[in-house]
Amino acid sequence: MYRPLFAVIDLAHLSHNIRYLKSRLRPDASLMVAVKADAYGHGVRAVVSRLAREGVRDVAVASLEEALEIRAFHRDVNILVLGAVTPDACAKAAEAEVEIALTDLSPIDEIPRMPKRLRVHLPLDTGMNRLGVKRTDEAVALARAIAAREDLELVGAGTHLAAADADDPAHASGQMERLKVFARALEEAGVRPARIHAGNSAALLRNPAWHLDMVRVGIAAYGYSPDPSVLPAPSLRPVMSLYAGVLRVARAQPGETVGYGATFAVQRPMSIATVAGGYADGYPRHLSNQGDVLVGGDLRPVIGRVCMDQLMVDVTGLDVATGDFAALFGYEPPALWREGWWNRLHPEERAARVQETYRMASNREERRVLSLDRLAALAQTIPYEILCRVHRRVPRVVCDG
């Protein structure tokens, strides 16, 4: 670790969130956690290993490549590929004991005969208009075709709720009613799979009747409600915090400007901190002149355009110096991360010292949180996107606070 920029992944918070979500889960339903896109940017190896410790046996990914990455380090977890898998890849999925959603990209008659049985889920389109069959007769026919092959096993059927976090639950309720029609048709035909699933994070938080046999949660596992204004979940704790060092603190006078395009004009004497994080690291450029960071014990505005590798912050009146740290989102930096602390450490020992001091702060300090809900709203996006966009050049320091 050379550049003063890193993300802390707090596995204790992940454990807390999973336990909280399980407490909200209907007793006869199981929990699946989405770990696609490198576990929403958190690091799939650390996340899956912690999920297994918490008794989560089912995870979901977007592609077979993601599934095989997990299978290379974890043999016991059940993995479901939610995205399309081509016929020529089905044998690889079966060999790795990975479950797939059987989409239009893999017609039954194009899937080659396989020496090992492939476990499949039937995607049902109840109103998302993304993937899956739309009519009950299609679903029954596909389920029967699966049952007719000894190398395929139908283990699940599911849909995806498009608006479970909306102010009005009518759309989601309509999808659930259509799903019941599908389930009834499959049952009457004698081909109903063991698990029917539809629920996402919003469904888990909103309505136990939507939990069915399994709930597939995503963003809630990582500490955020899909819409806190509709489904407040203050018990959830952010798992990722993004920290960046202060590279310079300088005075600016009226008449000067800040950043590319001179979009911020200095109106009064100011202290401006340059911070080591930019849009190439995942901090949205859309937050130019409107974002905030936690620095020097206070929430301070981003001024000027966010650069590729840095951003500038108004720290007027604060005790902030070169070598201090700011939180671009997440928990306030520990008090120890000041006065050149980073530069006094050897690069090879920095990760261990971050872990140690972060854990100490978690146990001893009352820390403020800069929630991604706030930043995402300002950036006209969602926490999911910002988490996933934290670039791989940003080291992830895994902590267990």
Describe the structure.
The protein has 401 residues and is an alpha/beta fold. It has two domains: 11-222, Alanine racemase (TIM Barrel), CATH 3.20.20.10; 240-399, Beta Barrel (Lyase, Ornithine Decarboxylase, Chain A, domain 1). The protein is built from eleven helices and 19 strands. The protein has helices spanning 11-24, 36-40, 44-53, 64-71, 87-95, 136-147, 170-188, 201-206, 350-364, 372-378, 383-389; strands at 5-10, 30-34, 58-61, 78-81, 99-101, 118-123, 152-158, 195-199, 214-217, 240-252, 257-258, 264-265, 270-275, 292-295, 298-303, 311-314, 325-331, 369-370, 396-399. The strands form three sheets. An eight-stranded parallel barrel has the order 2-3-4-5-6-7-8-9, surrounded by four helices. The protein has a six-stranded antiparallel barrel with strand order 10-13-16-15-14-17. A two-stranded antiparallel ribbon has the order 11-12.
Topology overview:
Blueprint: E1 5-10, H1 11-24, E2 30-34, H2 36-40, H3 44-53, E3 58-61, H4 64-71, E4 78-81, H5 87-95, E5 99-101, E6 118-123, H6 136-147, E7 152-158, H7 170-188, E8 195-199, H8 201-206, E9 214-217, E10 240-252, E11 257-258, E12 264-265, E13 270-275, E14 292-295, E15 298-303, E16 311-314, E17 325-331, H9 350-364, E18 369-370, H10 372-378, H11 383-389, E19 396-399
Parallel strand pairs: 1-19, 2-3, 2-9, 3-4, 4-5, 5-6, 6-7, 7-8, 8-9
Antiparallel strand pairs: 1-10, 10-13, 10-17, 11-12, 13-16, 14-15, 14-17, 15-16, 17-18
Helix pairs in contact: 1-3, 6-7
Domain Alanine racemase C-terminal: 239-399
InterPro entries: Ala_racemase, Ala_racemase/Decarboxylase_C, Ala_racemase_C, Ala_racemase_N, Ala_racemase_pyridoxalP-BS, PLP-binding_barrel
EC number: 5.1.1.1
